[in-house]
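Example complex used in Figure S2.
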Amino acid sequence: MPLTLESSYPLIAICSLGVLLLLLEIVLKKPDPVSYSVTIAGLLAVGVCIFPGLLRGDGATPTGGAGLLFCEVFIAAALLTVVFSGEYLRRHDSERAAGQGAYNLLVVFAVAGMMLMALAGDLISLFLGLELMSICLYVLVGFLRKHVTGNEASLKYFLLGAFITGFILYGIALLYGSAGTLSIDAIVALVIAGDQTPVFWAGLALVLAGFAFKVGAFPFHMWIPDVYQGAPTPVTAFMATGAKAAAFSVLILMFSRRGGAEGLVFRDLISFLAAGSMIVGNLLAIVQQNVKRMLAYSSIAHAGYMLVGIASGNLNGSDGVTFYLVSYLFMNVGAFGVVSLVEEREEKNLTYEDYSGFSAKNPLLAGLLALFLFSLAGLPPFGGFFGKYFVFVAAIEADLTWLAILGVLSSLAGVYYYIRLVMVMYFRDGEAGRAEAVPRLVLAALGLAALINVQLGILPSSVISLIHRFH
Amino acid sequence: MDFERIFFFATAGVAVVSGILTITRRNPVQSVLFLIVNFFCIALLYLGLHAQFLAIIQILVYAGAIMVLFLFVIMLLNLGDENTLEEKSGYRKYIAVVLAAVVLVQILTVVAGGVTGPTGTAAAGFGTVEALGETLFREYLLQFEATSVLLLAALVGVIVIAKKKVI
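Predicted assembly (638 residues):
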């Protein structure tokens, strides 16, 4: 069923919030504090109004309850981003701090784009959502106008992103031309039926390449380190979680949702993407000295783990990826959040050495960061462990044991660089580490993210049983 | 030959000739002028296929907006009396020749193989402004509205990047 105006209420709500923020900018003389609270309250309200539908496993949208769950993920990512951004912008660019209304507005519109991608289930909406999200992100990456690296990152992201948009659009045109339909469900049905024209497969491959770029998978990962490093840290967190979840919601729909493994022509291709991302991401992350860059490379590796779930092509695989995305959201935004608090102007305080002695100065923040890093490393009892567990089990079920073994081995390499940062924080004396007061709201957000991480690690069934209900 | 055929071959002939002239003129402004002729011919071809809306859009967007952009860029780039583009030789030229040859071979095989495009008759009124409006505002209303949000976000983004002073 197509997405109607009634069933797209989350989308309409978030767009209304965006327009409201725009009006506040015009009407108020000093809109920033108001805009900050209105954004947070508005995002919370939209999240709450989606919740009943999510619990019902609402099938009113083409993508059903899973689409709504993704909407909640985007909203949570945006909320945490906005909370961290207030303090970050104030410290990094006094001039830009005043333009925070526009910043929040762009985050809200980016969420609208992500929601359109996750809810719609047809190729036109998919493309429009992707563009809406990407355009907002291009601007957000370069938001600190005086930062040379930020501007460079923004331009790079824009040029490469526009280029890859061409790929996706061309793929969509080929799919439409050969299948005669824009509905993703119909196209997946054709894939499972098999025996399509080469034009059809070419179109599907182009779409796959485009989304592999958007999630930052191996042969298309070149932009990730530079863009993630150059962007303001909260924006990096938003891109690594929200934008990645949006692209994965589409990959799940198009390449794994039906669980028809026999219809998955691209399984070898996706396995290759997954294996390459895990190896390249983890190995390159080991040699990084800059924490932000290390997290960027590790996000390539995480895209690889999630692609393992997509390659499995069974229901456990797609459920595992969904769970992974939920847990990844809270650990990654948390880690970037602490990094954004430690980071100083002009990209200072970002190397490993700068974290020496951090636990002595800021025991609370150091403890939280250690928790997020353990979760990213995939150690129990945190959410990251079960994310990896689910996708690897799905891979073994799908006879992709080699991929699961490779995943476990490469995540062992991952443990090294995450734990190294923890070691530096706790066992090395040093001068660095801010002792300034952290805003209470930021601390509350970090604490909440940490709690959810622990909860997902101890009681993964709370979320995974919800995901099972969407089948 | 009926009128439609004569119309097609006349327009297509002018389109091909103006296309060749576009890439062989040394003066960029002349090139652009021939490109406009080419765009108009293509619009006429669309009209011959009863795709009124596409024809109008072709003229408005390509012959109108994109052409102006082209002219602006040429005027901004070619300062002084230098009105011819410099010839750049090198390996790129050879790559271009190879690519062109590949495309030519592809087209020839397709034509020689007698491959036909999708067949079947379009519904009555297909491609007219009315039909397009119906589809756009009934079936794709949500997507149409999403486009407006997209434009709004792009507008905000441009202002954020380009604004001289940040409030």
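Residues 259-471 of chain A form one domain. Residues 148-179 of chain A form the longest helix (32 residues).
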